[in-house]
Design brief:
This protein is α/β, with parallel strands linked by helices and 162 residues long. 38% of the residues lie in helices and 24% in strands. It has 2 domains: 71 residues, Helix Hairpins, CATH 1.10.287.180; 79 residues, Chitinase A, domain 3 (Roll), CATH 3.10.50.30. α1 packs antiparallel against α2. It starts with 5 loop residues before the first strand and ends in a 5-residue tail after the last strand.
Length: 162
């Protein structure tokens, strides 16, 4: 997989588009009105509404540029349509920690969709990239800050990641 690509699930793509829409169509117009009103009050040097409004507009514009670039680079991959016995982008993989025998299930998603509390990891992460192209029964080793973890791949499924 090309490291410059922005692979993303349909749900992740939709979230990026929704955030961009919210910023451009809802938040920015509201902040612009506040800044215009504050500017009409005269002295801008000590006008908190004006100062913080302008700061918020810069933040919105910066985030809008970032989201637009991510959306432009996006390559949408629907895991529900993937048919493979190998771990690919969008796979939901059950691995077993060889040290303590504990199993965990993780989904491999795009960098804009990482949610560690939901066990969604990036395909670029050390664990995610180690899993790519592996099959059930394979063992992988992942370097972590305190050493190396070894996992065995127990199960690979391709389902819609919500």
């Amino acid at each position: 997989m090309d490291k410059e690509k922005n692979y993303i699930t349909p749900q992740g793509y939709s979230r990026l588009q929704s955030e961009l829409h919210q910023l451009v169509r809802v938040e920015r117009p509201e902040v612009t009105k506040t800044v215009a009103w504050a500017a009409s009050n005269g002295d801008r040097s000590e006008n908190a509404d004006y100062i913080y409004g302008k700061k918020r507009l810069r933040e919105i514009d910066k985030r809008t540029r970032f989201l637009s670039k991510r959306i432009d680079l996006a390559i949408v991959v629907d895991p529900a349509t993937t048919k493979s016995d190998k771990v690919l982008f969008g796979a939901t993989v059950t691995v077993c920690d060889e040290d303590d025998g504990v199993e965990k299930t993780i989904s491999i998603v795009g960098v804009d969709e990482i949610e560690t509390q939901k066990n969604r990891i990036s395909w670029r992460s050390p664990l995610g990239s180690s899993l790519i192209s592996k099959v059930v029964g394979d063992t992988i080793s992942v370097k972590i800050p305190v050493g190396t973890k070894t996992y065995e791949i127990m199960k690979i499924v391709y389902i819609e990641i919500i």
